[in-house]
Amino acid sequence: MPELPEVQTIVDDLLAAGLPGAAVTAVAVHWPRSVAGLNVCEFAERLSGRRISGIRRRGKFIVFDLAPDLHLLVHLRMSGRLLLVAGGGELSPHQHVIIALDDGRELRFHDPRKFGRMYLVAEAGERLGRLGPEPLARGFTARRLAEGLGGRKRSLKPLLLDQSFIAGLGNIYVDEALWDARLHPCRRSDSLAAGEVVALHRAIRKVLRRGLRNNGTSLGAGQSNFNSIGEKPGSNREALRVFRRTGLACPRCRSPIARIIVGQRSTHICPRCQTAP
DNA sequence: GTCTATGTTTGCGG
DNA sequence: TCCGCAAACATAGA
Q1: Active site includes A265?
Q2: One pLDDT digit (tens) per residue for chain A, 277 residues
Q3: Which of A50, A57, A60, A117 does the annotation list as catalytic?
Q4: Distance from CA(A131) to C1'(B9), angstroms, rounded
Q5: How many Å apart are CA A14 and CA A3, to the nearest integer?
Q6: DSSP output for A184-243
């Protein structure tokens, strides 16, 4: 579900809620597979007593630093949410992991589809090392993107969704970026002219920054829809140009937006602005 | 009942 | 090795 802007919104909200500094007092796991690599007891034992020293994002992972040498990584996948609530409240059906804190609050992992995962690692690089560059980092230049694209022979869309190529993009922001750069999702990565790479680089950063400004994209009111902590929705849906706008007018040329399937994923394009290779 | 879904991983065949 | 494709995970909503 959540991509870079949604995950960053959650991280920002956790920071604003004053979570760093709190210590874990108790852990309950109601769906063991939400915890990867460890059994429930090991997970609870290793987490209990640890203090949260920092919270950050890497790709689509939320990283809780538990000083000095432990990290809780949370990947929300399709339907995961984090909730920060007053302790002792009743447990609703999809809340699979409850982390009680010494300030009286509870961090709860809510995940109807159960695809999300929590990882507890000593070395953050164990999980994060395979991720590609952060698209909003200073070091992510058009030149670096050009080198990456040129070294591969894949279709643009599946390549941009590949987290080892670039970290944090998902179906929404890839469709939006390709539309903005006027590139068809099936274009081969090594076929782009220099100007097209610059346009793509600019488009990726533009759509992500806009998503961030709008606190992420919330698509509906359902249980698996994105909401930040405290059920707070984002407003970026209004800013989407093509994603889930099949049949509506392209904001640039007024042609109807089309929905096609690329790399097994639903894909939205303007057939006139984004011509097939 | 049918179709779709903001994600990732694995296994297969070219 | 690289690439594309299908399936698996599990559930809700239209």
Answers
A1: yes
A2: 699 999 999 999 999 999 999 999 999 999 999 999 999 999 999 999 999 999 999 999 999 999 889 999 999 999 999 999 999 888 988 999 999 999 999 999 999 999 999 999 999 998 999 999 999 999 999 999 999 999 999 999 999 999 999 999 999 999 999 999 999 999 999 999 999 999 999 999 999 999 999 999 998 777 778 888 978 899 999 999 999 999 999 999 999 999 999 999 999 999 999 999 8
A3: A60
A4: 15
A5: 17
A6: -TTSBGGG--HHHHHHHHHHHHHHHHHHHHTT-B---SSTTS--BGGGBPPBGGGG-SST
Q: A63: which 2 tokens? A: 């990283």
Q: Is residue A3 annotated as part of the catalytic site, yes or no?
A: yes
A3 touches strand B (CB under 7 A): yes
Q: Which of A46, A51, A265, A272 is catalytic?
A: A265
